Amino acid sequence: MEAAFPDPWIRQFSIKANDVPAIIAELARLGLGANVVSRGEWARARRAWLPNESITLEGVGKTDADLRAAVSAARRGDPLRWVAVESPEEAEALATFAQGAHVTLDVLFRLNPDVAPETQAVLAVGSGASKFGMTETELTRTVQRLAGAAPGGLRPRGIHLHVGSQLGAIDAWRDGVRRAVAVLGLVRGSMPDFDTLDVGGGFPVAPFGWAPSVPAPGRFAREIPALLETVPADRRPLRLAVEPGRFLVARAGWIVARVLHVRDRGARLAVIDAGMAELVRPALYGAVHPVVALTSRGEPVDDAGPAASLRPGFEPTRVDGPICESTDTLGVHSLPPLRRGDLVAIRDAGAYAASMSSAYNGRPRRAQVLLR
Ligand SMILES: Cc1ncc(COP(=O)(O)O)c(C=O)c1O
């Protein structure tokens, strides 16, 4: 990320992907701030010893309490780096809480870029029909209203964008950033401080063992200079930010599970003791996670990934979780003979796994072990 988006880019880790304080702290040591969506995530970032000045608050679900907390921190002279507002209503609420409080707080405005991101429909948050962000007209009106309502307090500082997650190509992202640069340039004409563009996250990760068919962060970054040149020099953003989640942590995490049953259901079926309560994304929208068998010492039996040709004794095996829902499946994987008690690992589970886990079926929150 740093090679693609070097200083002075602001790099914020989107901690919804993985909110373990030790990991947030490790990424902070590498120069990343934290991007949070609630007071809960904000508290996780603080537990990782991040100062408010390296924390940004965004998110479609901010409550009055979240907004009041951001205002209170600013009133104490310890403001967040910025708050990104989602809607005219949210901007209004923030302005009301800040009224008379003599705060100085930078505010970004989330743009819905109305593009067609090259990803699963459920991850295409930059499409016009999605619930995320404001249209260009809503955004420019909201900026004007906020600037008029709170002179010297809340400071409209720029645009926040997130085109989608697990982007399979750069085209929609480029279109989205181009729109954001144009809108920012328009506002900046009458408001020189409106100088910040946060282009969000979405940098993809190919499942382990699959061909690296997805664009690397550098491929996205290469588009930026030409996009900035679409507006006059004095209308361009002065500060640029990214907020990756998945790219930084997905490959760093494995879920280790034990086999509970092996059945013949036309093909071989293995039920294991981890599933949608620990990793909901396969059941939620068909996310693909390689599953590998482990020796009793915890070493992968075949580490070549799902693209490897079948080894002798390996069979296509449907791997299902233990939850009372038939969608609780991790798909078909090439695996050696298995029996109850054997260990398997679900790979690439460092992002959107533990942070999205649930207690459904009375399951406890799982232990997480950080290895260096
Ligand atoms: C606004 C915003 N920024 C950043 C991210 C992180 O996305 P990713 O993990 O795909 O990089 C998300 C993910 O939902 C998001 O909504």
Notable characteristics:
single chain; 372 residues; TIM Barrel; Lyase, Ornithine Decarboxylase, Chain A, domain 1; 6-stranded mixed beta sheet; binds pyridoxal-5'-phosphate
Describe what you observe in this structure:
The chain contains 10 helices and 14 strands. The chain is about 25% helix and about 20% strand. The chain starts with 9 loop residues before the first strand and ends in a 26-residue tail after the last strand. An 8-stranded parallel barrel has the order 1-2-3-4-5-6-7-8, surrounded by 6 helices. Strands 11-14-9-10-12-13 form a 6-stranded mixed β-sheet, with no helix packed on it. It folds into 2 domains: about 10-250, TIM Barrel, CATH 3.20.20; about 255-360, Lyase, Ornithine Decarboxylase, Chain A, domain 1. Helix 3 (about 65-75) packs across helix 4 and helix 4 packs parallel to helix 5 (about 135-150). The chain is α/β, with parallel strands linked by helices. It binds pyridoxal-5'-phosphate (PLP). The site of pyridoxal-5'-phosphate (PLP) has 15 residues, from helix 9.
Residue-averaged pLDDT: 92
Q: Count structural domains.
A: 2
Under CATH at level 1, the class of the largest domain stands as Alpha Beta
What is the CATH-assigned architecture of the largest domain? Answer: Alpha-Beta Barrel
Uncertain residue segments: none
Order of helices and strands: EHEHEHEHEHEHEHHEHEEHEEEE
Note the total helix count.
10
